[in-house]
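Need tokens for this chain, all 175 residues.
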Amino acid sequence: MGRNLEEFIKKNFKKAIDNFEIQPFYQPVIRVLSRQLCSFEALARWIDPEIGIIYPDEFIPVLEKEQAIHLLDTAILRQVCIRLRSSITNGEIPIPVSVNLSRLDFTLCDIFAVADQIVSEYHMGKMLNLKLVAEGVETAEQVERLRGMGCDYIQGYYYSRPLPQADFEAYLAKE
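Here are the structure tokens for all 175 residues:
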């Protein structure tokens, strides 16, 4: 990435978020056997009116380095919730959408409270009977906060690191 692009990103990302130049693009997730759509993943894309597409591998590292990635992630979550709320209001049955969060969101802001506030603002989580999955959970405090938010599933080093086959078999034997 050129220095000019990095400087452009630093200088313009807040405006781009406010102007919806950074927005979610939705990638379908398809069940292999049935070939049926089961969900979407929301992926951030920046389309600048002057320079065109700025790809995530160009702007995400800059936002992480600048400790501003949480602003992007919360903006994408909010836009996804707006879209889902609109589909519900229009009588459509919404299809699940997953939103990625940076590991830095957990230190740069209270991402649990922010996500809960956004989802509540648009009262979708429990209304749609969504299952909330938190990945990357590393502390007892995170577990308790997620439990308080009504998170359904937790994955992360708090419970276990990724296991090689032999350790996986031993883990299953204990359950």
